[in-house]
Design brief:
Number of helices: 1
CATH topology: Immunoglobulin-like
Radius of gyration: 13 Å
Number of strands: 7
CATH architecture: Sandwich
Helix content: under 10%
Distance between the termini: 36 Å
């Protein structure tokens, strides 16, 4: 299975645990691809996930193919990387949002969404 154009392919929680046991390093050489794990540890279903390079003012396209239930996740590929600094917008089924600014994707292995960020 290959990852295409900033889209997420989801794995089961068991598969994620085996991935977490193996060190997965995000890598980046500008104009290359970068990979990181998205982990939804909230009590909500994630329905949209946006990554936008800084200093953009808008949001790029939603990178999810389908909803991510609580306790699930998957690998994300960012293609044509031109910067390491991104902002993230996570949208949940109940329209609750998490916005995170100045995230360094070049040093990120796993991005974990947690309930505390929703408060």
């Amino acid at each position: 299975m290959t990852l295409l154009n900033m889209k997420v392919f989801f794995t089961t929680t068991v598969a994620l645990l085996s991935i977490a046991a193996t060190p997965v390093m995000a890598y980046a050489a500008f104009a290359d691809s970068l990979y990181f794990t998205l982990d939804n540890q909230t009590s909500r279903t994630l329905v949209e996930f946006y990554l936008s390079p800084l200093p953009s003012t808008g949001w790029e396209e939603n990178v999810l193919f389908s909803a991510v239930p609580q306790g699930s996740g998957g690998m994300i590929e960012v293609e044509d990387l031109h910067t390491c600094e991104y902002k993230i917008l996570a949208v949940f089924a109940d329209d609750v949002l998490i916005e995170d600014y100045d995230v360094n994707l070049c040093t990120l292995n796993t991005y974990t969404l947690i309930d505390a960020a929703l408060e």
